[in-house]
Amino acid sequence: MEPEENIKLHAIMIPVPLQGHIVPFINLAIKLASKGLTITIVNTQQIHQRLMKAQSISDGTLDYDIFSEARKSGLDIQYTTISDGFPLNFDRAGNHDQYMEGLFHVFSAHVDDLVGNLVNSNHNPPVSCLIADTFYVWPSEIAKKYNLVNISFWTEPALAFTSYYHMDLLRINGHFGSQDYREDMIHYIPGVDAIEPGDLPSYLQDPEPWGIMHRYIFKSLEDARKADVIICNTVQELESSTISALQEIKPFYALGPIFPNGFTKSIPTNLWRESDTVPWLNSKPKGSVMYISFGSLANITRQDTLEMAHGLLLSIVSFIWVVRPDNTWNLLPSRFEDDVKDRGLVVPWCSQIDVISHPAIGGFLTHCGWNSVLESIWYKVPMLCFPILTDQFTNRKLVVSEWKVGFDLCSGRILRQQEIAQKIDCFMTEADKLRINLEETRKKLEYTLSKNGSSGSNYKQLIIDLKSRILQKARVTRQAYFSMVRKKIFVWNETHYIRSI
């Protein structure tokens, strides 16, 4: 049998078809390939088509290889696409529940075909690992079928993962799925000193968690329990107690922050065409602009949009506001852009890294998506938090209560224009208080990415772990094979003996 150090790892990577998941998957694929792994990364055909159209790379055809430049640099990384079970022109956002049912019940058949073809190909090295997004319901079944190491990639913080992982504890204690819903502080989740019910992921806050999204997410987290390994885009030094508690249950590797490197600029990751905001930002004083974005998925209501717009009209702060074309572009008050043209810029989408890394940016009014949180810390941009759904409430707790690098936008979930204007103006004048904590938190990210940092150590240990598991699977397979052969020989001998009598 081949020595462990000589084993070459080949991983299939499959992200959930959402902007906030595709980005860390692509960044992780580059990172793992740079450490010697062979990677085959898979997008759905519809996502690939959107990436191409957004970047004007092609007319949306499926034959463009987004990793060609990375391969020229010596990385062994392949790219392929797969049907999600729906026609390319099917309106997934407009038929959300139907689409989710398809991901729940149909998509796994397409994945099975793809993985089977890759496993049975003559690729060298052979496929040995499946790295699937935790928000899939099928990885354990497919990994078992093809004898692959099952690696679940959690793209959110460890605090959100452990909240889902211990939902049975929440249910038993009446903090989830109970008619007598409790609102007192939660102290019983391992590795978590205390968390308020309002800081749990939104799907654990719903009094009637029976919809398609609840069923899908809870089934995916149930499947993640069967994974061999969990990898997470978080930082050991920022969530040490939570991660330590999870590591007592299952191998859990904090590999974050999983940021882009030099190759990623040549790889399309945005689903919308980017507006060039840099010339406008160049005309603004240092630290004077508020960047406002609620991410690639969350939709704020029409009323919230109007309150936000009127709050910005009342405010004195300059701003860039991302209003996605699939959401509320036509809901802004009439003449809004004319009224704020000297100090405001409204765009349908932009390169967030280019914006928040610009010296003119003084703050980020954010939905608290996990990528946005990590990027804001890296570029030392204070956050004004308005979470909308899923892990964003949990992320807000980390930003505001734990690390103290941001403030809450409003006391509740309802926006009021006067409160928005007041909070934005006060935030921009008091942001320096947060920058002290941002400086310290940024240093932890720098350290974890350094030569002796935890992230680098965890990558090394993960690779050792995976090679060991592949060897173990090979031994088990070999033992099963010889056991089967011995059984067949025994049956043949018995039959032959009886016949001879």
From TrEMBL:
Keywords: Glycosyltransferase, Transferase. Signal peptide: none annotated. CDD domains: GT1_Gtf-like (cd03784). It comes from the Eukaryota. Its EC number is 2.4.1.-. Transmembrane segments: none annotated. InterPro entries: UDP_glucos_trans, UDP_glycos_trans_CS. One of its GO terms (molecular function) is quercetin 7-O-glucosyltransferase activity. Belongs to the UDP-glycosyltransferase family. PANTHER family: GLUCOSYL/GLUCURONOSYL TRANSFERASES, UDP-GLYCOSYLTRANSFERASE 85A1-RELATED. This is Glycosyltransferase.
